[in-house]
Design a protein that fits this description.
three-stranded antiparallel beta sheet, Cytochrome p450-Terp, domain 2, 3 strands
Protein backbone atom coordinates (compact mmCIF):
# COMPACT_ATOMS: atom_id res chain seq x y z
CA UNK A 1 0.00 0.00 0.00
CA UNK A 2 1.62 3.31 -1.07
CA UNK A 3 2.36 5.67 1.82
CA UNK A 4 0.07 8.71 1.66
CA UNK A 5 1.49 12.14 2.46
CA UNK A 6 0.27 13.33 5.87
CA UNK A 7 -0.25 16.96 6.88
CA UNK A 8 3.26 18.52 7.29
CA UNK A 9 4.35 18.79 10.97
CA UNK A 10 7.76 20.31 10.48
CA UNK A 11 9.99 22.00 7.92
CA UNK A 12 11.32 18.52 7.03
CA UNK A 13 7.81 17.18 6.51
CA UNK A 14 6.96 20.13 4.26
CA UNK A 15 9.20 18.57 1.60
CA UNK A 16 8.54 14.85 2.25
CA UNK A 17 6.77 13.19 -0.69
CA UNK A 18 6.25 9.38 -0.68
CA UNK A 19 8.23 7.88 -3.52
CA UNK A 20 9.74 11.37 -4.03
CA UNK A 21 6.71 12.07 -6.25
CA UNK A 22 7.25 15.39 -8.02
CA UNK A 23 10.53 16.06 -6.19
CA UNK A 24 13.38 17.06 -8.56
CA UNK A 25 16.49 15.02 -7.68
CA UNK A 26 18.79 16.34 -10.39
CA UNK A 27 19.16 18.70 -13.32
CA UNK A 28 19.22 16.75 -16.60
CA UNK A 29 19.37 17.55 -20.31
CA UNK A 30 18.73 14.01 -21.57
CA UNK A 31 14.98 13.42 -21.71
CA UNK A 32 11.85 15.48 -21.22
CA UNK A 33 8.34 14.20 -20.51
CA UNK A 34 5.11 16.18 -20.74
CA UNK A 35 2.75 13.90 -18.82
CA UNK A 36 -0.32 16.00 -19.47
CA UNK A 37 0.16 16.21 -23.24
CA UNK A 38 1.73 12.76 -23.59
CA UNK A 39 4.97 14.03 -25.13
CA UNK A 40 8.41 12.41 -24.86
CA UNK A 41 11.67 13.79 -26.26
CA UNK A 42 15.28 12.56 -26.14
CA UNK A 43 17.78 15.46 -26.31
CA UNK A 44 15.00 17.55 -27.89
CA UNK A 45 14.03 15.03 -30.61
CA UNK A 46 10.54 13.54 -30.44
CA UNK A 47 10.36 9.84 -29.74
CA UNK A 48 8.05 9.56 -32.75
CA UNK A 49 10.73 10.95 -35.09
CA UNK A 50 13.39 8.71 -33.58
CA UNK A 51 11.23 5.55 -33.72
CA UNK A 52 10.28 6.31 -37.35
CA UNK A 53 13.63 7.50 -38.71
CA UNK A 54 16.53 6.55 -36.42
CA UNK A 55 18.15 3.28 -35.34
CA UNK A 56 18.75 2.11 -31.79
CA UNK A 57 22.53 2.61 -32.01
CA UNK A 58 22.12 6.11 -33.46
CA UNK A 59 19.70 6.90 -30.60
CA UNK A 60 22.20 5.48 -28.07
CA UNK A 61 24.83 7.87 -29.42
CA UNK A 62 22.38 10.81 -29.23
CA UNK A 63 21.36 10.01 -25.66
CA UNK A 64 24.90 9.64 -24.37
CA UNK A 65 26.79 12.37 -26.26
CA UNK A 66 23.88 14.76 -26.78
CA UNK A 67 24.03 15.09 -30.57
CA UNK A 68 23.03 12.88 -33.49
CA UNK A 69 26.28 11.40 -34.87
CA UNK A 70 27.55 12.35 -38.31
CA UNK A 71 28.15 9.52 -40.81
CA UNK A 72 31.74 8.84 -39.66
CA UNK A 73 30.85 8.95 -35.95
CA UNK A 74 27.93 6.59 -36.49
CA UNK A 75 29.99 4.17 -38.60
CA UNK A 76 32.74 4.08 -35.98
CA UNK A 77 30.29 3.58 -33.09
CA UNK A 78 28.47 0.79 -34.95
CA UNK A 79 31.79 -0.87 -35.78
CA UNK A 80 33.05 -0.62 -32.18
CA UNK A 81 29.82 -2.11 -30.82
CA UNK A 82 29.97 -4.88 -33.40
CA UNK A 83 33.59 -5.70 -32.47
CA UNK A 84 32.77 -5.92 -28.74
CA UNK A 85 29.69 -8.16 -28.84
CA UNK A 86 31.53 -11.27 -27.66
CA UNK A 87 31.60 -12.18 -23.99
CA UNK A 88 34.45 -13.98 -22.21
CA UNK A 89 34.09 -17.76 -21.98
CA UNK A 90 34.52 -17.27 -18.23
CA UNK A 91 31.24 -15.37 -18.07
CA UNK A 92 29.53 -17.95 -20.28
CA UNK A 93 30.86 -20.72 -18.02
CA UNK A 94 29.62 -18.79 -14.97
CA UNK A 95 26.16 -18.58 -16.55
CA UNK A 96 26.21 -22.34 -17.06
CA UNK A 97 26.34 -22.64 -13.25
CA UNK A 98 23.13 -20.61 -12.87
CA UNK A 99 19.96 -22.67 -12.28
CA UNK A 100 17.97 -22.94 -15.53
CA UNK A 101 14.87 -22.13 -13.49
CA UNK A 102 16.33 -18.77 -12.48
CA UNK A 103 14.81 -15.56 -13.89
CA UNK A 104 16.75 -14.09 -16.82
CA UNK A 105 16.83 -10.70 -15.05
CA UNK A 106 18.77 -12.24 -12.17
CA UNK A 107 21.13 -13.86 -14.68
CA UNK A 108 21.58 -10.49 -16.40
CA UNK A 109 22.21 -8.61 -13.17
CA UNK A 110 24.85 -11.16 -12.13
CA UNK A 111 26.59 -11.21 -15.51
CA UNK A 112 26.48 -7.43 -15.93
CA UNK A 113 28.14 -6.99 -12.54
CA UNK A 114 30.77 -9.61 -13.44
CA UNK A 115 31.97 -7.42 -16.33
CA UNK A 116 33.52 -5.20 -13.65
CA UNK A 117 35.89 -8.08 -12.81
CA UNK A 118 37.22 -8.13 -16.37
CA UNK A 119 37.44 -4.35 -16.87
CA UNK A 120 38.64 -3.32 -13.43
CA UNK A 121 40.60 -0.24 -14.59
CA UNK A 122 38.61 2.85 -13.62
CA UNK A 123 39.25 6.27 -15.22
CA UNK A 124 35.98 8.12 -14.85
CA UNK A 125 37.48 11.42 -15.98
CA UNK A 126 38.77 9.96 -19.25
CA UNK A 127 36.35 10.38 -22.21
CA UNK A 128 37.97 7.39 -23.94
CA UNK A 129 37.28 5.22 -20.87
CA UNK A 130 33.65 6.36 -20.91
CA UNK A 131 33.36 5.62 -24.66
CA UNK A 132 34.83 2.13 -24.15
CA UNK A 133 32.54 1.36 -21.20
CA UNK A 134 29.50 2.47 -23.23
CA UNK A 135 30.55 0.32 -26.19
CA UNK A 136 31.19 -2.73 -24.00
CA UNK A 137 27.88 -2.56 -22.12
CA UNK A 138 25.71 -1.71 -25.15
CA UNK A 139 27.41 -4.53 -27.07
CA UNK A 140 27.59 -7.23 -24.40
CA UNK A 141 24.27 -6.92 -22.55
CA UNK A 142 22.30 -8.37 -25.53
CA UNK A 143 24.84 -11.18 -25.93
CA UNK A 144 24.45 -12.11 -22.25
CA UNK A 145 20.64 -12.06 -22.46
CA UNK A 146 20.73 -14.34 -25.50
CA UNK A 147 23.40 -16.57 -23.96
CA UNK A 148 21.35 -17.36 -20.85
CA UNK A 149 18.34 -18.17 -23.04
CA UNK A 150 20.34 -20.84 -24.91
CA UNK A 151 22.17 -22.07 -21.79
CA UNK A 152 18.94 -22.60 -19.80
CA UNK A 153 17.70 -24.73 -22.74
CA UNK A 154 20.83 -26.84 -22.36
CA UNK A 155 22.45 -25.46 -25.49
CA UNK A 156 25.72 -23.63 -26.11
CA UNK A 157 25.32 -19.90 -26.68
CA UNK A 158 25.46 -18.76 -30.30
CA UNK A 159 28.34 -16.47 -31.22
CA UNK A 160 27.35 -13.04 -32.59
CA UNK A 161 27.29 -12.63 -36.39
CA UNK A 162 29.40 -9.66 -37.46
CA UNK A 163 27.47 -9.32 -40.72
CA UNK A 164 24.20 -8.55 -38.94
CA UNK A 165 23.21 -5.13 -37.54
CA UNK A 166 22.45 -4.74 -33.84
CA UNK A 167 18.82 -5.88 -33.60
CA UNK A 168 19.07 -8.57 -36.28
CA UNK A 169 22.11 -10.02 -34.51
CA UNK A 170 20.34 -10.08 -31.15
CA UNK A 171 17.28 -11.85 -32.59
CA UNK A 172 19.63 -14.27 -34.39
CA UNK A 173 21.51 -15.11 -31.16
CA UNK A 174 18.20 -15.52 -29.34
CA UNK A 175 16.10 -17.48 -31.84
CA UNK A 176 18.94 -19.21 -33.80
CA UNK A 177 17.74 -17.77 -37.10
CA UNK A 178 18.25 -14.45 -38.84
CA UNK A 179 14.99 -12.48 -38.54
CA UNK A 180 12.79 -11.07 -41.30
CA UNK A 181 14.05 -7.50 -42.00
CA UNK A 182 10.65 -6.00 -41.04
CA UNK A 183 10.66 -7.91 -37.74
CA UNK A 184 14.19 -6.66 -37.00
CA UNK A 185 13.21 -3.09 -37.90
CA UNK A 186 10.17 -3.22 -35.59
CA UNK A 187 12.28 -4.69 -32.80
CA UNK A 188 14.85 -1.91 -33.27
CA UNK A 189 12.05 0.67 -32.95
CA UNK A 190 10.94 -1.04 -29.71
CA UNK A 191 14.46 -0.60 -28.34
CA UNK A 192 14.36 3.12 -29.21
CA UNK A 193 11.03 3.47 -27.39
CA UNK A 194 12.42 1.79 -24.26
CA UNK A 195 15.85 3.48 -24.30
CA UNK A 196 15.29 6.36 -21.89
CA UNK A 197 12.62 7.89 -19.67
CA UNK A 198 14.10 10.55 -17.36
CA UNK A 199 14.29 9.75 -13.66
CA UNK A 200 12.34 6.47 -13.46
CA UNK A 201 13.18 4.12 -10.60
CA UNK A 202 15.98 2.19 -12.35
CA UNK A 203 17.58 5.33 -13.74
CA UNK A 204 17.45 6.92 -10.29
CA UNK A 205 19.22 3.79 -9.00
CA UNK A 206 21.81 4.27 -11.72
CA UNK A 207 22.42 7.89 -10.74
CA UNK A 208 22.65 7.12 -7.03
CA UNK A 209 25.12 4.31 -7.73
CA UNK A 210 27.08 6.50 -10.18
CA UNK A 211 27.32 9.28 -7.59
CA UNK A 212 29.56 7.07 -5.41
CA UNK A 213 32.09 6.92 -8.32
CA UNK A 214 31.88 3.14 -8.64
CA UNK A 215 32.39 1.50 -12.02
CA UNK A 216 29.79 1.62 -14.84
CA UNK A 217 29.24 -2.15 -14.66
CA UNK A 218 28.06 -1.83 -11.03
CA UNK A 219 25.87 1.12 -12.11
CA UNK A 220 24.13 -0.99 -14.76
CA UNK A 221 23.84 -4.02 -12.46
CA UNK A 222 22.17 -1.81 -9.83
CA UNK A 223 19.70 -0.49 -12.41
CA UNK A 224 18.93 -3.98 -13.75
CA UNK A 225 17.94 -5.10 -10.27
CA UNK A 226 15.60 -2.13 -9.93
CA UNK A 227 14.03 -2.59 -13.37
CA UNK A 228 13.11 -6.20 -12.54
CA UNK A 229 10.29 -5.20 -10.18
CA UNK A 230 6.68 -5.73 -11.40
CA UNK A 231 5.76 -2.11 -10.72
CA UNK A 232 8.53 -0.98 -13.08
CA UNK A 233 10.04 -2.89 -16.00
CA UNK A 234 8.66 -6.24 -14.91
CA UNK A 235 5.05 -5.33 -15.78
CA UNK A 236 5.38 -6.25 -19.47
CA UNK A 237 5.84 -9.89 -18.50
CA UNK A 238 2.54 -9.90 -16.62
CA UNK A 239 0.36 -8.16 -19.24
CA UNK A 240 0.06 -11.22 -21.50
CA UNK A 241 -0.78 -13.45 -18.52
CA UNK A 242 -3.47 -10.92 -17.56
CA UNK A 243 -4.91 -10.96 -21.09
CA UNK A 244 -4.85 -14.76 -21.16
CA UNK A 245 -6.58 -14.84 -17.77
CA UNK A 246 -9.36 -12.64 -19.15
CA UNK A 247 -9.64 -15.14 -21.99
CA UNK A 248 -12.28 -13.59 -24.25
CA UNK A 249 -13.63 -10.17 -25.15
CA UNK A 250 -16.96 -10.79 -23.42
CA UNK A 251 -15.08 -11.37 -20.18
CA UNK A 252 -13.18 -8.05 -20.32
CA UNK A 253 -15.69 -5.86 -18.48
CA UNK A 254 -16.61 -8.35 -15.73
CA UNK A 255 -12.89 -9.09 -15.17
CA UNK A 256 -12.02 -5.39 -15.05
CA UNK A 257 -14.86 -4.56 -12.66
CA UNK A 258 -13.72 -7.34 -10.32
CA UNK A 259 -10.10 -6.17 -10.49
CA UNK A 260 -10.99 -2.56 -9.75
CA UNK A 261 -13.28 -3.59 -6.90
CA UNK A 262 -10.37 -5.60 -5.46
CA UNK A 263 -8.12 -2.51 -5.87
CA UNK A 264 -5.86 -4.65 -8.10
CA UNK A 265 -3.26 -2.78 -10.16
CA UNK A 266 -3.95 -3.47 -13.85
CA UNK A 267 -0.58 -4.38 -15.38
CA UNK A 268 0.45 -2.13 -18.24
CA UNK A 269 -1.72 0.74 -17.04
CA UNK A 270 -0.99 3.88 -15.09
CA UNK A 271 2.10 6.02 -14.76
CA UNK A 272 3.60 8.46 -12.31
CA UNK A 273 4.14 11.02 -15.07
CA UNK A 274 1.60 10.33 -17.84
CA UNK A 275 -2.04 11.19 -17.16
CA UNK A 276 -2.88 10.35 -20.78
CA UNK A 277 -1.93 7.36 -22.95
CA UNK A 278 1.84 6.87 -22.88
CA UNK A 279 3.12 8.06 -26.28
CA UNK A 280 5.25 4.92 -26.43
CA UNK A 281 2.12 2.78 -26.06
CA UNK A 282 0.61 4.63 -29.04
CA UNK A 283 3.59 3.72 -31.23
CA UNK A 284 3.92 0.16 -29.85
CA UNK A 285 0.27 -0.45 -30.66
CA UNK A 286 0.92 0.65 -34.26
CA UNK A 287 3.99 -1.60 -34.46
CA UNK A 288 1.95 -4.54 -33.11
CA UNK A 289 -0.75 -3.94 -35.72
CA UNK A 290 1.90 -3.77 -38.47
CA UNK A 291 3.31 -7.11 -37.33
CA UNK A 292 -0.10 -8.77 -37.21
CA UNK A 293 -1.12 -7.36 -40.62
CA UNK A 294 2.11 -8.80 -42.06
CA UNK A 295 2.63 -12.05 -40.17
CA UNK A 296 -0.89 -12.98 -39.00
CA UNK A 297 -3.21 -11.96 -36.19
CA UNK A 298 -2.97 -12.50 -32.45
CA UNK A 299 -6.42 -12.76 -30.78
CA UNK A 300 -4.95 -11.16 -27.68
CA UNK A 301 -4.52 -7.90 -29.63
CA UNK A 302 -8.28 -7.43 -30.10
CA UNK A 303 -8.76 -8.39 -26.47
CA UNK A 304 -6.17 -5.78 -25.45
CA UNK A 305 -7.96 -3.12 -27.47
CA UNK A 306 -11.24 -4.04 -25.75
CA UNK A 307 -9.55 -3.85 -22.33
CA UNK A 308 -8.05 -0.48 -23.19
CA UNK A 309 -11.51 0.88 -24.13
CA UNK A 310 -13.16 -0.52 -21.00
CA UNK A 311 -10.36 0.81 -18.79
CA UNK A 312 -10.61 4.26 -20.39
CA UNK A 313 -14.22 4.47 -19.21
CA UNK A 314 -13.45 3.35 -15.68
CA UNK A 315 -9.92 4.56 -14.98
CA UNK A 316 -9.46 7.32 -17.54
CA UNK A 317 -11.02 9.96 -15.26
CA UNK A 318 -8.20 9.12 -12.77
CA UNK A 319 -5.60 9.62 -15.49
CA UNK A 320 -4.88 5.91 -15.79
CA UNK A 321 -4.16 4.82 -19.36
CA UNK A 322 -1.93 2.25 -21.09
CA UNK A 323 1.79 2.68 -20.45
CA UNK A 324 4.81 1.41 -22.36
CA UNK A 325 4.33 -2.13 -21.05
CA UNK A 326 0.81 -2.70 -22.35
CA UNK A 327 1.49 -3.50 -26.02
CA UNK A 328 5.20 -4.34 -25.96
CA UNK A 329 4.60 -7.96 -24.94
CA UNK A 330 2.28 -8.55 -27.90
CA UNK A 331 5.05 -7.39 -30.24
CA UNK A 332 7.71 -9.56 -28.59
CA UNK A 333 5.43 -12.62 -28.53
CA UNK A 334 4.84 -12.27 -32.28
CA UNK A 335 8.62 -12.18 -32.71
CA UNK A 336 8.83 -15.55 -30.91
CA UNK A 337 10.36 -14.20 -27.71
CA UNK A 338 9.68 -15.92 -24.38
CA UNK A 339 7.66 -13.83 -21.90
CA UNK A 340 10.30 -13.82 -19.17
CA UNK A 341 12.70 -12.22 -21.67
CA UNK A 342 10.53 -9.12 -22.11
CA UNK A 343 12.10 -7.31 -19.17
CA UNK A 344 15.68 -8.27 -20.10
CA UNK A 345 14.90 -6.74 -23.52
CA UNK A 346 13.70 -3.63 -21.71
CA UNK A 347 17.11 -3.66 -19.94
CA UNK A 348 18.99 -3.99 -23.25
CA UNK A 349 17.31 -0.77 -24.39
CA UNK A 350 17.45 1.11 -21.10
CA UNK A 351 21.19 0.50 -20.77
CA UNK A 352 21.42 3.49 -23.12
CA UNK A 353 19.51 5.76 -20.73
CA UNK A 354 21.31 4.45 -17.66
CA UNK A 355 24.70 5.17 -19.26
CA UNK A 356 23.58 8.63 -20.42
CA UNK A 357 22.63 9.45 -16.82
CA UNK A 358 25.86 7.87 -15.51
CA UNK A 359 27.90 10.15 -17.76
CA UNK A 360 25.77 13.19 -16.88
CA UNK A 361 26.05 12.48 -13.15
CA UNK A 362 29.84 12.31 -13.41
CA UNK A 363 29.81 15.70 -15.12
CA UNK A 364 28.37 17.44 -12.04
CA UNK A 365 28.61 14.93 -9.26
CA UNK A 366 27.55 15.16 -5.64
CA UNK A 367 26.93 11.86 -3.83
CA UNK A 368 23.23 11.27 -3.19
CA UNK A 369 22.42 11.29 0.51
CA UNK A 370 18.84 12.52 1.17
CA UNK A 371 17.54 13.05 4.67
CA UNK A 372 14.65 11.35 6.47
CA UNK A 373 11.97 12.11 9.02
CA UNK A 374 12.70 9.86 12.00
CA UNK A 375 9.55 8.15 13.31
CA UNK A 376 11.17 5.52 15.58
CA UNK A 377 11.59 5.19 19.35
CA UNK A 378 13.98 7.31 21.41
CA UNK A 379 15.75 7.07 24.83
CA UNK A 380 15.19 3.37 25.39
CA UNK A 381 16.93 1.68 28.40
CA UNK A 382 18.95 -1.48 27.63
CA UNK A 383 17.54 -4.73 29.09
CA UNK A 384 19.66 -7.92 29.27
CA UNK A 385 18.05 -10.83 27.42
CA UNK A 386 17.07 -12.67 30.59
CA UNK A 387 15.00 -9.63 31.60
CA UNK A 388 13.07 -9.19 28.33
C1 LIG B 1 7.33 1.63 -16.22
O1 LIG B 1 8.68 5.92 -14.13
C2 LIG B 1 8.83 5.53 -15.40
O2 LIG B 1 9.09 6.31 -16.28
C3 LIG B 1 8.65 4.00 -15.61
C4 LIG B 1 8.63 3.58 -17.08
C5 LIG B 1 9.97 3.80 -17.76
O3 LIG B 1 10.00 3.91 -19.00
O4 LIG B 1 11.01 3.70 -17.04
O5 LIG B 1 7.63 4.27 -17.78
C6 LIG B 1 8.38 2.06 -17.17
O6 LIG B 1 7.65 1.29 -15.10
C7 LIG B 1 5.91 1.66 -16.66
C8 LIG B 1 4.94 1.25 -15.50
C9 LIG B 1 4.85 -0.29 -15.51
N1 LIG B 1 4.11 -0.76 -14.33
C10 LIG B 1 2.83 -1.19 -14.43
O7 LIG B 1 2.18 -1.22 -15.48
C11 LIG B 1 2.26 -1.71 -13.12
C12 LIG B 1 0.85 -1.12 -12.91
N2 LIG B 1 0.97 0.32 -12.71
C13 LIG B 1 0.93 0.82 -11.35
O8 LIG B 1 1.57 -0.01 -10.42
C14 LIG B 1 1.20 2.31 -11.24
O9 LIG B 1 0.45 2.92 -12.22
C15 LIG B 1 2.62 2.83 -11.31
C16 LIG B 1 3.53 2.14 -10.35
C17 LIG B 1 3.15 2.71 -12.69
C18 LIG B 1 2.56 4.32 -10.94
O10 LIG B 1 2.09 4.35 -9.66
P1 LIG B 1 1.97 5.70 -8.81
O11 LIG B 1 2.24 6.90 -9.67
O12 LIG B 1 2.77 5.53 -7.57
O13 LIG B 1 0.44 5.74 -8.51
P2 LIG B 1 -0.22 5.09 -7.24
O14 LIG B 1 0.18 3.65 -7.10
O15 LIG B 1 -0.01 6.02 -6.08
O16 LIG B 1 -1.77 5.11 -7.65
C19 LIG B 1 -2.50 6.35 -7.66
C20 LIG B 1 -3.96 5.92 -7.81
C21 LIG B 1 -4.34 4.85 -6.81
O17 LIG B 1 -5.74 4.92 -6.64
P3 LIG B 1 -6.33 5.55 -5.23
O18 LIG B 1 -5.74 4.72 -4.12
O19 LIG B 1 -5.81 6.99 -5.22
O20 LIG B 1 -7.82 5.43 -5.39
O21 LIG B 1 -4.15 5.32 -9.10
C22 LIG B 1 -4.48 3.96 -8.94
C23 LIG B 1 -4.06 3.55 -7.54
O22 LIG B 1 -4.84 2.47 -7.09
N3 LIG B 1 -3.70 3.19 -9.94
C24 LIG B 1 -4.16 2.12 -10.55
C25 LIG B 1 -3.12 1.72 -11.40
N4 LIG B 1 -2.08 2.56 -11.29
C26 LIG B 1 -2.46 3.49 -10.38
N5 LIG B 1 -5.32 1.44 -10.44
C27 LIG B 1 -5.46 0.35 -11.22
N6 LIG B 1 -4.49 -0.10 -12.09
C28 LIG B 1 -3.33 0.57 -12.19
N7 LIG B 1 -2.39 0.13 -13.03
Amino acid sequence: MAATPTAPQSAGELSFRPGLEGVPATHSAICDIDGQQGLLTYRGYSVEDLANHSTFLETVYLLIWGELPDADQLAEFEHEVQMHRRVSFRIRDMMKCFPASGHPMDALQSSAASLGLFYSRRALDDPQYIYQAVVRLIAKIPTMVAAFQLIRKGQDPIQPRDDLPFSSNFLYMLTERAPDPLAAQIFDACLILHAEHSLNASTFSARVTASTLTDPYAVVASAVGTLAGPLHGGANEYVLAMLEEIGSEDQVEPWLDRAIAAKQKIMGFGHREYKVKDPRAVILQQLAKQLFDTFGDDPLYDLARKLEAAAAERLGPKGIYPNVDFYSGLVYRKLGIAEDLFTPIFAIARTAGWLAHWKEQLGANRIYRPSQIYTGSTGRAWLPVQSR
